Amino acid sequence: MEWAHRWVEASAALAGMITAEREVPGFLQGFCERSVDLLDVPSVATILVENGGGGIRAAVASDEKTRLLSLVAADRQGSPFFDCLRSGKPLYAIDLLECGERWPEFSAQAMAVGIDRTAVLPLRHGEEVLGVWQVFGQGRLPDRASLGLAQQLADITMLVLTHSLALRDATESAESLRTALTSRVRIEQAKGMLAARWDVHPDDAFESLRVYARARQRKLHEVADDIVERRLELPRN
Length: 237
What we know:
Elements lengths: L1 H19 L3 H16 L3 E7 L6 E6 L2 H11 L5 H8 L3 E5 H4 L4 H9 L4 E9 L2 E10 L6 H55 L3 H14 L4 H9 L9
Antiparallel strand pairs: 1-2, 1-5, 3-4, 4-5
């Protein structure tokens, strides 16, 4: 029961972490550290790929040595990383001493740092494979049941991550639109004030405003704001 409770606790913690940790690497770092503790393994690494698998978006691990090893895996077409990424299916309990010929370069690099076993599982959102996460072992790996639970935890983290990023993008877009509208309102206010003060057409007032801002390498809405707040008395051209 205690073991099951730790898995539930880890799921809740990761779900809450993305609201506090805005950057993807920081969130994945938390996932790696939680996975090491839950699976009782030396290290865990995660790699997210760009859309279409054209490049690495983020590479994070529970320690720097493992992160470098995961980057080696991602840089080699002949590695468990690419086999999992292509198929979208997990690779359980790989013994690098027995399977070294299948991935010779990766196996040599791993065993050089004391890693002789690995499991590679997909990071998924629905049917889309966003990357992989790799469990590294020395002499042993967790059984399939434990890795299956870990896969469910990974699926939860990817769901939380993708939804959070979508929400953040929507929020940032809304904020950008709000800022643009506010700036436009300020410019229109300043244009109207100048047109009334100088008794000219609003288009002529706007041109004077634009010329003044450009000559001083200032943003148009900043100059407009100074005029509206009466911090600037714009000279008439």
